[in-house]
Amino acid sequence: MPCLDDRVSLPYLDVILREVLRWYSLGAPHAASNDDVYGGYFIPKGSMALSRDEDIRHLTAGSFVNHFAFGRWFAENSLWTAASTILAVLRIDHAKDSNRERIEVKPEFSAGQVIHPEPFHCSFESVNTAREGHLRTMSSK
Questions:
Q1: H or E stretch covering 133
Q2: Which of 12, 27, 83, 126 pairs with 21 at a CA distance of 20 to 30 A?
């Protein structure tokens, strides 16, 4: 089973997860610890901001402070571990209708601050029974 030590050898998974998070997540609020100017806009000290822009986390020292750094690290590593384990054990494919024809997925997402995909049909097939057994053992504990 993949573990965090394998992360460096699976760069595409890392990039895909980061892109999904960038597109579909506003992330945690950031507070300006000092007056600042960002993108030509004045940001007074104490202002709260939600942003999809990765650059907001890389402003000059003292601008925005992410008070949720540990939680974010834990969440990103947990997401990576879950995704890599799923991909190591299962093949995810289109669901099939009663005629064994592929059901196309039309991506639809909820609206609002917390965005999530709307339910859709898909199929899961085990690609490695030994890994599947290991995963079932882990999930039953």
A1: helix 129-140
A2: 126
**How buried is residue 90: exposed, middle or buried, by Cβ count under 10 Å (0-12/13-18/19+)?**
middle
**pLDDT tens digits for 7-29?**
999 999 999 998 887 776 555 56
- How far apart are the C-alpha atoms of 139 and 78, rounded to whole Å? 15
- Cα(44)–Cα(63) distance, rounded to whole angstroms? 10
119: how many CB neighbours lie within 10 A of its CB? 6
Is the CB of residue 109 less than 8 Å from the CB of residue 24? yes
- The residue type of 51 is S
Two tokens, residue 67 = 């008070």
Q: How many residues belong to the chain?
A: 141
* Cα 96 from Cα 8, distance rounded (Å): 35
Residue whose token pair is 């490695």: 128
Residue 69 tokens read as 């750094």
Q: Which residue has the higher pLDDT, 12 or 141?
A: 12
Tokens (6 digits) for 141 = 């504990």
Distance CA 50, CA 92 (A): 33
Q: Which amino acid is at 130?
A: A
